[in-house]
Design a protein that fits this description.
Length: 249
Amino acid sequence: MAAAPIPFARIHYPEQSLHGRIVHAIGRRIVSGDLRPGDLLPAEPELGASRTVVREAIKVLAAKGLVESRPKTGTRVRRRDDWNLLDPDVLAWLQNGDVSEELLRKLTEVRRIVEPAAAELAAARAGAREIAAMENAFTQMEASTQARDDGDVEAFVQADMRFHLAILHACRNDLLEQMSRVVYSALLVSFRATSRLPGRLRAALPQHRAILDAIRDRDPRAAAAAMRHLVQTTARDVDALKKRPRARR
């Protein structure tokens, strides 16, 4: 019987409502450079929404550091330095364009700091439910590599994220739980970038198996070492991406 999914905090801002669609539409335009720092946001008629709806969307974008509103000057786009680059939506919008090697390197550094310690705590604290969630995610990772010759990349990425988030949840630390958004964002960008490397999906399986085995065996030191090895491999993959020729658009 499959493990019940562990409830994680909502990651992305919902896009179903009108103001949610405006948040994503404007956010993508800002991140892509269509709206540049200092530019005024489009007026309500251009966005096809009421002032109230647009105001709600602006509040969300302001919380992400993308825009600021000032009396008499309107709402303008902020500089990239002001953006919350670890916001899941901002990172998702960045993925629609080119993700720089510099950003990937910084995200890998975040993972190097957080994830080995999380694996160590998980090995000491994980209960049967959390371990079952990791096992279920790992099984799905294995299945995704059999989907076709090069594997089902998106299915692998989603299962891989569930694996790592289950480890974070198993730490039983509310503050670390709140960091799930940051780790999710880092994993999403990192996995989708490095999964383009030939053979990467299948090569990652034994590394994840080592982490799972160490947590299941209640061996914190081995769990931390296995996770550190995995993240170091990711760092090498990021370096390998730099040497690959960019695909023509």
